[in-house]
TrEMBL record:
CDD domains: CBS_pair_GGDEF_EAL, EAL. GO terms for molecular function: cyclic-guanylate-specific phosphodiesterase activity. Residues 7-257 form the EAL domain. This is Phosphodiesterase. It comes from Trinickia terrae. Residues 443-600 form the GGDEF domain. InterPro entries: Cyclic-di-GMP_PDE-like (IPR050706), EAL_dom (IPR001633), EAL_sf (IPR035919), GGDEF_dom (IPR000160), Nucleotide_cyclase (IPR029787), Rev_trsase/Diguanyl_cyclase (IPR043128). Gene3D superfamilies: 3.30.70.270, EAL domain. Pfam families: EAL (PF00563), GGDEF (PF00990).
Length: 623
């Protein structure tokens, strides 16, 4: 690596920088989310100000070039500790060490402890962070050295978890007190479902191992609130403070307000991957019929004997080297054998004579979407013949056309509970889960049930394809008015959506959605129908009726925290109350209606006691 041009002055040696005390320390706060107090600081080193070696990356690269990496690490630690003591900082001091530097630290443990005592910094205030700079060759010896460091009272942390050598293997073997999650996983976690799931997996393991998690790289409020609501207790990043020679003693009001924010995070959902490409493993297992296969040398009499012994077997596969090469359908084979003299003429001939030499083959790992494409293809032989299921190309068993259709349908129905296959919005299970989180955190929110008026007549007139376009347009309109960090949008099914608002201007957002949809939906009509103001059709009783344009109605339920902090409502009750409010909204000229959850609860009791009472109440409201 080159640090200077040929004409530039030579760079000072790392040993000279250490001897001349030319290194300086900066500190970045690590914040405890329980109240927003500063738990401690990470000590970081800087080279001479204004020089090419000021940045730590350049400084450590220069040290590596000179073979003085470990010496620089120890000098950096001493510089940080000395500055920390001089500043009289409170809390813990986190120090970065490579595995090699930790080994050497263990060798000088007694001298280091005496030096710390003279400075007035007890070892209990230190956290030794293992960085991911290099692999550990002697892990057993390193485990012993970490134990020796802990005996001094210092804590041990695994830094930059999730990258390079900071692996679960080390986590299990070293059993750190603290694990710092690398900033890659934290940056934009509020909008990245994969990062969210990765961090949640780390959190589950931390709960099992007893380690405390610190999220590195927090730079904005949205990421902070997601991390906070996941249950991770500490964080570090520019949102709280940048590294500085004079560290902050308290975080900024903006950060403290974000930590104490009353609204809960909307976790990023895995809607696309769940809906678009669910695994086919479970579907293949449901379809599998365990059935014997015959070798290619088998005769037709062998096939007949097998079908007679196994009357429920719909087909038999012909294999060579455990790989399927043909398929014989039972019905076609037995019909052929029923012909006069057929057995006498063909019984001893090879079974491949009447077999389908290019059967439909489904690999066990095939995704449901790939299976669905097979259903829609021109090759429909599987409906009559069935198909072969393989595992790594080797024969596993058989399947029927009926089982294929059933398996694809069941998996898609299950996927739709999590994400709507048309709009990819969260389905009923994520909706219920988020309502439960809101109730469990005693958050104030507005559950808004969205429905489209006159959608069925439009669907009947223009067809399902055009109806789907209207639903996708409604989803776009609703998503556009939601704050993704505060408002949860789900698709219940058909033309029903549910928004769980935490935005303070939620009502203006809902009314904007109604206005935008009502204006935009008219473009889906033919010119003549648009000029007429709607379409002619039949009502639910078959009577000729004129229907206006498709419009949006939103019924809202206000849910406020209970004074005694008890959860007196359920997800199902909230959704049902919102559905009742939606029925009221469909009668309102503005397409909007708001009730308190208590009123919704009373209406539901009324509806249970007297089925027509709600309709009568609605009629009185409209009149």
């Amino acid at each position: 690596m080159s640090f200077r041009s040929p004409s530039a002055a030579p760079l000072p040696g790392v040993a000279d920088l250490i001897a001349q005390h030319a290194l300086s320390a900066v500190f970045q706060p690590i914040v405890d989310f329980d109240g927003g107090a500063i738990l401690g600081y990470e000590g970081l080193i800087r080279g001479p100000a204004g020089s090419p070696l000021e940045a730590p990356a350049a400084l450590f690269a220069h040290a590596a070039h000179e073979g003085l990496s470990t010496e620089l690490e120890h000098a950096a630690a001493r510089t940080c500790i000395h500055a920390f003591a001089k500043l009289n900082c409170e809390g813990k001091l986190f120090l970065n060490f490579s595995a090699e530097a930790i080994l050497k630290l263990g060798e000088t443990r007694d001298d280091t402890l005496a030096w710390l005592l003279r400075l007035g910094v007890p070892a209990e205030r230190l956290v030794v962070e293992l960085t991911e700079q290099c692999a550990i060759s002697d892990i057993a010896g390193f485990v012993q050295m970490v134990a020796a460091v802990r005996e001094t009272g210092a804590q041990f942390a695994l830094d930059d978890y999730g990258t390079a050598n900071a692996s679960m293997n080390l986590w299990v073997r070293l059993q750190p007190d603290i694990v710092k999650i690398d900033r890659f996983f934290i940056h934009e976690i509020a909008s990245d479902p994969l990062k969210f799931e990765a961090v949640r997996a780390m959190q589950h393991f931390a709960n099992s191992s007893g380690a405390r998690l610190v999220a590195e790289g927090i730079e904005n409020e949205a990421d902070l609130i997601v991390i906070r609501d996941m249950g991770i207790g500490c964080g570090q990043g520019y949102f709280f403070g940048r590294p500085d020679a004079v560290p902050l003693t308290r975080i900024a009001d903006e950060a403290k307000q974000a930590i104490r924010a009353e609204h809960i995070a909307v976790f990023p959902g895995q809607t696309r991957s769940v809906a678009a490409s669910p695994s086919g493993g479970m579907a293949a297992a449901k379809m599998l019929v365990a059935a014997p296969a015959l070798p290619r040398q088998a005769a037709n009499n062998d096939v007949l004997d097998l079908f007679n012994r196994m009357p429920n077997l719909h087909a038999v596969a012909i294999v060579e080297n455990d790989e399927p090469i043909a398929l014989l359908n039972r019905r076609a084979f037995m019909d052929r054998y029923a012909l006069p003299y057929h057995r006498e003429l063909f019984g001893k001939r090879p079974c491949l004579q009447f077999a389908n030499a290019s059967p439909v083959v489904i690999e066990k790992s095939m995704t449901v979407e790939q299976m669905a494409k097979l259903l829609a293809s021109d090759d429909q032989r599987y409906l009559a013949d069935g198909f072969v299921i393989t595992d790594g190309g080797k024969y596993l068993g058989l399947g029927t056309g009926e089982s294929l259709v059933r398996a694809v349908t069941e998996v898609r129905i299950e996927a739709a509970r999590y994400a709507n296959p048309l709009t990819f919005l969260p389905g009923n299970i994520p909706i219920s889960s988020h309502i439960a989180r809101l109730l469990g955190n005693h958050a104030e929110f507005y559950a808004c049930y969205v429905d489209l008026n006159h959608f069925k007549p439009f669907n009947d007139q223009y067809g399902y394809w055009q109806g789907d376009e209207v639903l996708k347009f409604a989803a776009v309109v609703l998503a556009d008015i939601c704050d993704p960090t505060r408002d949860f949008l789900g698709h219940v099914g058909g033309d029903d959506f549910l928004i769980l608002f935490q935005s303070e201007d939620w009502q203006a957002r809902a009314q904007k959605a109604i206005a935008n949809f009502n204006a935009g939906a008219q473009r889906f009509y033919a010119d003549a129908d648009r000029a007429a103001g709607g379409i002619h059709g039949e009502d639910r009783r078959g009577n000729p009726t004129f229907f206006g344009f498709v419009t949006m109605a939103i019924g809202c339920v206000r849910v406020r925290p209970q004074p005694d902090q008890r959860n007196v409502y359920s997800s199902e009750m909230i959704a049902s109350a919102a559905a009742l409010a939606k029925r009221r909204a469909k009668h309102e000229a503005a397409g909007f209606f708001l009730i308190d959850v208590e009123e919704g609860e009373a209406l539901m009791h009324m509806a249970t006691a007297t089925p027509h009472a709600v309709e009568e109440s609605e009629a009185r409201t409209v009149n």
